[in-house]
Amino acid sequence: MCSVNDEGAESFEELKPDEPLELKCRKCLTEDGNVILRKKDVYCKTCFIPMVTHKFRATLGKSKLVNKGERVLVCVSGSQSSVSLLHLVWTGLQQSTYKRLTFDPVIVYIDESILFKYPQNQQNKIQELFEKYGLSYHIVLFASVLYSNNCLIEDTNIDQHNNKLKNIFKNISDLTLKEDMLMKLRKHAITKLAKLLECTRIITAENEHKLSIRLLSNVALGRGSQIGLDIGLAVNDKTNSKKSLITIRPLRDLSAKEISYYALFNKLEDYVHSNFLTATNEDESIQKTTEQFINNLQVEFPSTVSTIFRTGEKISEKTSRTAYCSMCQGIMDIEMPPSSAMEATKYSKYVSLMGLKALELSLNNIDNKESDLKRCNGCYCKNNQNSKEELLKNLCYACRHIIQNLESLDDLPEEILKKNSEKLQFQKMEEQIKDFLL
Amino acid sequence: MDICSKSLNITAEFTSGLQILFNNVKKHNVVLPETDEPWTLGLLLIWIKDNLLVEKEKCDLFLKGNTVRPGIIVAVNDQDWELLGNVKYQIKNNDNITFISTLHGG
């Protein structure tokens, strides 16, 4: 039941900044507090760390996501979140029998130094860190994971692969799309590594803050239907028919502040982990604008992030027939009502392309006409254009934007193209036998 | 009277991506010169901007107005600055002040 007061609406909890804060830890009530969460809850160091650990274990333990002895890929990028994740996992493994984590972790670090400028000895430092923990680990180059089949051993064509990777990002001029593409390629790389290393679970280190930023920017990017995949606790990769591969985000109930203090109290070193948005202005990309929006709200209203996050959790897919995008493996909207946002965007784009002529044709003809139009433009490279068209058909709205920027598809990882051609063949076959199906 | 006793020795640490604004150096041992006013965190922020910050044109990635940018956490000797009065906190000798960015990608 909702409690409604006399004014007819629930009043918000008011923050009184002038009131002196309770300085003792709210849990043990004896020690002086070190951290203040949600602007009111004070914790001391000794109570704070078990609290974070407990939250991590509770999230991980929920519905027994990981079985005993299962191989789990732990993705460490060097960022504060992931360094904390590594520490949490390691601490879990050292516990006494009844509390011990029982899975078999494989640590992986993807070296993206080809795209970003890192301090020179960063890779060595990461290696030292992994050695210190004494768990089995792999350090791989981003380009070789994407393009080579034996990236774990040796990549003989590394220069060629590096160039391919650089090419992709050179062709995308828009910062928003660049970042989006990087996210998708990272995801692709991680999935591939998990398969290579025979892991059935993937653990990543996104915290509540990061996920709520991702949630809102996903909506803005036209990835609304994929929110569940991108922020969920346990996401099953259904496209992989042989074995289920589940991505787990055990830090998703922890706030950025909690992680930062966990790292600080445990004296965990973190490393530079850049992306395309690092040190860019806020108005240059959708993701950064979203981040700024959330952060500014968060200062005044400490419950912003959790509100966004809990609301996002409730969004779920309801389409019965699902198709997956060849690139991001996300759910595609295929069954659309006639006046959906996507149709509207399509129509508006078409009208601006065709001018007055557009009015003579009905909406249904758009697809045919549009492809005709493109084919005429690119007669000299008809084949190239065709394969791009074919790929675009199997991409979601957001990925289409990215691919349209690329000059040639050769720079994309082989698996994506292969998957797409398989899909196309399947669709062709379905078309052929469609009359015989009941 | 010893002048050194009035100037303050502190360490300023920049982690989780913030170090890229400070020449990739995380830990800075700093001596704050003697002034008439007592050193507060608010004054320190401006001092850092003028003296430590290498990439001056990216100053708005660190400061916003007279405080830090939303998303940056400040801790003094492992204690949250929100518990100490934010910018009003008076810096003591040998304080260890940590700035942690929670923004992704610095």
UniProtKB/TrEMBL annotation, chain A:
Signal peptide per UniProt = none
According to its UniProt entry, one GO biological process term is:
protein urmylation
Superkingdom of the organism of origin: Eukaryota
Q: Cellular location of this protein? A: Cytoplasm
> So, what pathway does this thing act in?
tRNA modification; 5-methoxycarbonylmethyl-2-thiouridine-tRNA biosynthesis
Recorded GO molecular functions are: nucleotidyltransferase activity; sulfurtransferase activity; tRNA binding
Taken from the UniProt entry, a GO cellular component term is: cytosol
What UniProt keywords apply to this chain's record, in alphabetical order?
A: Cytoplasm, tRNA processing
Record InterPro entries: CTU2 (IPR019407), Rossmann-like_a/b/a_fold (IPR014729)
Please explain the role this protein plays, according to its UniProt record: Plays a central role in 2-thiolation of mcm(5)S(2)U at tRNA wobble positions of tRNA(Lys), tRNA(Glu) and tRNA(Gln). May act by forming a heterodimer with NCS6/CTU1 that ligates sulfur from thiocarboxylated URM1 onto the uridine of tRNAs at wobble position.
Question: What family does the Swiss-Prot or TrEMBL record give for this protein?
Answer: Belongs to the CTU2/NCS2 family.
The protein in question is named: Cytoplasmic tRNA 2-thiolation protein 2
Q: From which source organism is this entry? A: Sipha flava (yellow sugarcane aphid)
From TrEMBL, chain B:
Give the free-text PTM comment from the record: C-terminal thiocarboxylation occurs in 2 steps, it is first acyl-adenylated (-COAMP) via the hesA/moeB/thiF part of the MOCS3/UBA4 homolog, then thiocarboxylated (-COSH) via the rhodanese domain of the MOCS3/UBA4 homolog.
Q: Which Pfam families match?
A: Urm1 (PF09138)
For the modification 1-thioglycine, the affected residues are: 106
- Where would you find this protein in the cell? Cytoplasm
Which pathway, metabolic or otherwise, does it act in? tRNA modification; 5-methoxycarbonylmethyl-2-thiouridine-tRNA biosynthesis
| One GO term (biological process) | tRNA wobble uridine modification
Q: Does the keyword Cytoplasm apply?
A: yes
Keyword Plastid on entry? no
InterPro entries in UniProt: Beta-grasp_dom_sf, Mopterin_synth/thiamin_S_b, Urm1
An example of a Gene Ontology cellular component annotation for this protein is: cytosol
Swiss-Prot/TrEMBL puts the cross-link Glycyl lysine isopeptide (Gly-Lys) (interchain with K-? in acceptor proteins) at: 106
Keyword list, A-Z: Cytoplasm, Isopeptide bond, tRNA processing, Ubl conjugation pathway
Kindly give the SUPFAM superfamilies that the UniProt entry links to this protein: MoaD/ThiS
What family does this chain come from, according to its entry?
Belongs to the URM1 family.
Give the protein's function.
Answer: Acts as a sulfur carrier required for 2-thiolation of mcm(5)S(2)U at tRNA wobble positions of cytosolic tRNA(Lys), tRNA(Glu) and tRNA(Gln). Serves as sulfur donor in tRNA 2-thiolation reaction by being thiocarboxylated (-COSH) at its C-terminus by the MOCS3/UBA4 homolog. The sulfur is then transferred to tRNA to form 2-thiolation of mcm(5)S(2)U. Also acts as a ubiquitin-like protein (UBL) that is covalently conjugated via an isopeptide bond to lysine residues of target proteins.
Q: What is this protein called?
A: Ubiquitin-related modifier 1 homolog
Taxonomic source organism: Sipha flava
